[in-house]
Amino acid sequence: MSKRPPFVRVAGVEEIPEGVVKHVIVHDKPMALCRVEGNFFAVNAVCPHMGGPLANGRLEGCVIQCPWHGWTFDVRTGLADHPGGHAVSAYEVRVEGNDVLVGWLKRPLS
């Protein structure tokens, strides 16, 4: 069984206002970190369609939209918000005190 990578501090709670997306790097992976209704979520920051920067995308509720071609993903799960779409990886996020930490994959992609 492989060892899970450690959680990494990526921001302070106050650095991620509600509805804002921040680009962070965790274990050499670009991620889009956001806060929705007080909860923090992290997904792969690269759109699987053509490599668009999801961290620069628009966030509406729990859905992030790629700024290049409009593909949408649920930040809670990484699943595409349209039928037949590709998912992005979603990562575990936790808050310890005033620190936002990102860790391992929530689920393997098929």
Explain this structure to me?
The chain is mainly β and 110 residues long. It has a domain at 21-93: Rieske [2Fe-2S] iron-sulphur domain (Rieske Iron-sulfur Protein), CATH 2.102.10.10. Helices cover 0% and strands 44% of the residues. The protein contains no helices and nine strands. It has strands at residues 8-12, 21-26, 29-36, 39-44, 58-60, 63-65, 72-74, 90-96, 99-105. The chain has a six-stranded antiparallel beta sheet, with no helix packed on it. It has a three-stranded antiparallel beta sheet with strand order 5-6-7, with no helix packed on it. The radius of gyration is 13 Å and the shape is globular. It starts with 7 loop residues before the first strand and ends in a 5-residue tail after the last strand. The mean pLDDT is 91.
